[in-house]
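Notes, Module 5: Reading structure tokens.

Key idea: the token line is not a picture. It is a compressed description, and you learn to read it the same way you learned to read a sequence, by spotting repeated patterns. We will look at two proteins. The first is printed below with its tokens.
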Amino acid sequence: MKSSKRMLALVGGIAALALLSGCASGGSGDGGKVDELTFWLSTSSAQEKGYQDLATAYEKQTGVTVKIVNLPYDGLQAKLRESAQANSLPDVVRAAGIDPIWSGKTVDLASIVSDKANGIDQDLIAKDKDGKVTSIPSDVTAAGLFVNKSLFDKAGVAYPTDPAKAWTWSEFLDAADKVKADTGAKYDLVFDSSPSRLRAYMFTKGTDFMQQEKDGSFPTDAKTVDALQDFADMNDDSVMPKSVWTSGQDPNALFKSGQVVAYFSGVWQSSDFASNITDFDWASAATPADPTHATEINYGGNIVGFENSDTRGAAAKKFIDYMYDPTNYAKLVTTNGFLPVESGLDITYPFKSQAAKDSFALYQKEIEAADPISSSYAKAASEWAVEGKEIGTDPTTAEVGKLINGQQSAKETLDTITKYYEEHVG
């Protein structure tokens, strides 16, 4: 009886996937003309609009319908795995990451990436050992610094808004100390308890934090140990509250309280702040360069085409090529409020908030000025996935929390983190 139920469930699941995929792996286009493509993604209704506009324009130009299926975020990766096993993959997907279960069934996008007319940032692209490009980032996110502009103005303290005039961490902390003292704020800074934001800090300090060697190892040195200790020392309940990294207090809420001078987070906060901060003025400031101008650049999504057949694979690649044409891509990132992976675009974001407009403009400059190490983790993660390796639950936040609490040294913290990485992706 249980076996019968499992068989019915399996049949039902495959049927559901077939409905989701439409004619992705069969029907019209397997041996001739493709008249419909299926495009899976997971995004907000606001950001779906940019893709719908792109699909409408593509159909108008080519006659090929692009059917967009917007799936729940938590379910997209699982659906892709199931559909790969059922041989019913969509034609195109904007995936959160690359999965070894289906990475071998993808279209090679190298020619789109290498087309200089597209202006795609080569530092963002991961290739396998044969030079194949499995995916192209749909957009990027970047870490950076926000300030309580009202507090800075009240204290009469200036802050840089151009990466070319970036301050050092010491200069930033001196300025934040003065603002805190003059305004009665509680903390100089809050910092997302995230491995990504820690990498950004460590990169700005000129370290090679968590850079993998060809033998799979993640070496550390005294400079890296010292930089990590400097970060931990800021968590002293004066410069920064210990509670964010040691017990999960929300840094976003702390900054919105108006009692924090600055917040190190990322570009995604700009839209949130524009809508939800009404008690004070906020602004983006240049990320400290000490001495390296760096950030942490991650992919907002990964555009992938599937080789469901020679004909369908070619049709999927043609649509992706259309997507990354600079004119079309500029419209997409403008509508969706994306940071682009292409340079030289004319983008005017439709934000009502001037602070949000200025923030996005600064982040674009930050990315252009950033050292290539800034995108090293995103590229490595894609390469690990293609190789069938998974990082699992990153221990960085928990281990740094122990360092802040005085339970272990910076060297011991790094040793534990690097050992974990070497065991999982070495």
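Here is the second protein, with the sequence above and the tokens below, as before.
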Amino acid sequence: MICVLIAIFLMSSLIGCGAGKDGNTGKDGKKVTLRVATWREFDKEYYEEIKRRFEEKYDYIDVQLEFNADENSYNANIQTDITTGVVADVFDIHHNGTMQMYGQYGFILDQSDMEYMNNYDENAKAINSWDGKNYAYMFDYNYFGCLYNMDVFDELGLEIPTTPEELVQTVAKLKEAGYGGIAYPGSRWGTTFAKGCIISSLGTEAYDKLMLGMDQGTVTDITTVDGLKDALATVQLYADNDIFYTASQSVDYEPALSLFATKKAAILWGGTYFFGEKDIYFPDVNAGFFPTPTYAGNGVCYAEPGQCTCIYANGEHIAEAKLWVNFVAQSEISEYYCTNAKMFSAIRGVEPQFEEAKMIRSSSSNYALIKSNYYENAEWWSAEWEDMLEGIFWDKDSYQSHIDIVNAQLKSADIANKKK
């Protein structure tokens, strides 16, 4: 993969020769067309409004929005377009290892000196930074937890569960009343629920330290990480008690939402952005939200980074691209987008105004998320780690047996000495 990216970089550098300047394009009266690409077609209305406001302020720039709702196709197209040097001036990608490699090999611009950085959330900054440089503006966070049918809870006299045992008991009572378990799109998200329990239990910094520790060889016994065994015990309790709707492992996104909409399930595990799709998927459900209870008892939500906006380093309109990114990061624009998309802003001091936002904030004490998503030595340990989550979550395996397997692999891999 690295060799491929190096080759792509050399090719794109030649193709982009003479471009990528911050010059005075547009100041001679000519219109500039700025291409902006994203997969978030379901937010098209909001992007169009941001475009309208931007073009009103910068009347020499025409923004050409490019949408592709198929994320796999979108990501493949971005990589192909970088190869041929025709990628959009500004494009959204997920926070992952690919983005980090784009930065390392010079495909995306360092945004460290841009205006929005003065008000940028520290976690968002950490997520998209390495080697002292920030490579993307992250639009938002998406909190994950339990959406629940408030009318059903009231009808059955159910309280919001705050411990794993209480959630198990709540699901049991729902089943007795004729409702199924928690709706969960397992075929789409796999073990995301299990990862969410671990991340929210440990917190951002401790989880990041654990993952990087395994990758660097400084952690060879995961039981030494405070809180991890309790987090795995949380997952195992939920698996052993079948809290999810029947056959959730094969349920996709829309069927899970349908279970909630038709009241076959009174709880749906998912992101706060589901509220943004309420009118489409569950318009007749009076939905509330609570964090997934864990043995940590901290009321923390697992949060997932939203789209990360990058600037193509060899683009023809870098100055205009910077204007766009700084514009969308303004407090007013960030509040507008997050309010409508039902997300939480990465700009300090911005509070979205959608109806459920205050309820979500009041029900959760904080959030925890994945800071690093690129592990250079993952081939030595990640399979065993993923097998552990899969085994506990879906197969009801003993978490202790999997801990032993992961530890044995970490010791056998001896990554710390391989790096010397």
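Summary for the second protein:
- Residues 1-25 have pLDDT under 50 and may be disordered.
- The two ends are 23 Å apart (CA to CA).
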